[in-house]
């Protein structure tokens, strides 16, 4: 009896250690943001856009959401490469999915309109 309780307890402890699945599809987002600050010349905006667009397709295929800031960052990258309409759309998507970002996104949208 004691052995069964020990085995059951050990099994529950190990199950509690399993990493929870994220509610977001992070893909290469963190690496892209890191590269955009650290090695900007090595990973140009066009390449970053390519990585993020690929991640978005992966997320859509698995019915997962992109993390907070993802759409805003992609919008910023679109702005950098001269794709203003797509930049606005990504910023509006960020604002719709994460309403707490509205003040920040509205400021970015004001700058995009000036382009």
How would you briefly describe this protein structure?
By secondary structure, the protein is mostly helical. The protein has 6 helices and no strands. It has one domain (25-113): Serine Threonine Protein Phosphatase 5, Tetratricopeptide repeat (Alpha Horseshoe).
Walkthrough of the structure:
- The chain has 115 residues and is an all-alpha fold.
- It has one domain (25-113): Alpha Horseshoe (Serine Threonine Protein Phosphatase 5, Tetratricopeptide repeat).
- Helix content is 69%, strand content 0%.
- The chain contains six helices and no strands.
- The chain has helices spanning 2-16, 29-38, 45-61, 70-80, 84-97, 102-113.
- The protein is globular, with a radius of gyration of 20 Å.
- The mean pLDDT is 85.
CATH architecture name? Alpha Horseshoe
CATH fold-level label: Serine Threonine Protein Phosphatase 5, Tetratricopeptide repeat
Report the β-strand fraction as a percent range: under 5%
Count up the domains. Answer: 1
Q: Largest sheet, described in full?
A: none
Distance from first to last alpha carbon: 74 Å
How many DSSP-defined strands?
A: 0
Which parts are unreliable, with pLDDT below 50 for 5 consecutive residues or more?
A: none
Structural class assignment: mainly alpha
Question: What are the main properties of this structure?
Answer:
115 residues; mainly alpha; Serine Threonine Protein Phosphatase 5, Tetratricopeptide repeat
